[in-house]
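Input structure tokens:
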């Protein structure tokens, strides 16, 4: 199962999502026999790569913020 496809966080995967949408438009039977499996796997891998980039950026941002907080506490402890 994948998240909502057409969101601001998934702009890098528009092409593969369009291919999946076109495959799904071919009908239920085509999807049921596995005709869209490759397109679905491509979308999943693209979304995973996007998510990994976001989490790495968030992790780095959190490290910077955490260091700022530690520095503030060092100042408070030094002045107490």
């Amino acid at each position: 199962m994948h998240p909502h496809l057409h969101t601001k966080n998934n702009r890098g995967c528009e092409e593969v999502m369009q291919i999946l949408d076109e495959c799904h438009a071919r009908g239920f039977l085509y999807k049921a026999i596995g005709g869209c499996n490759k397109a679905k796997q491509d979308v999943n891998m693209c979304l995973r790569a996007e998510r990994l980039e976001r989490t790495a950026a968030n992790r780095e941002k959190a490290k910077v913020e955490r260091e700022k907080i530690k520095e503030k506490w060092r100042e408070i402890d030094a002045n107490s």
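The chain has a mean pLDDT of 90. The radius of gyration is 21 Å.
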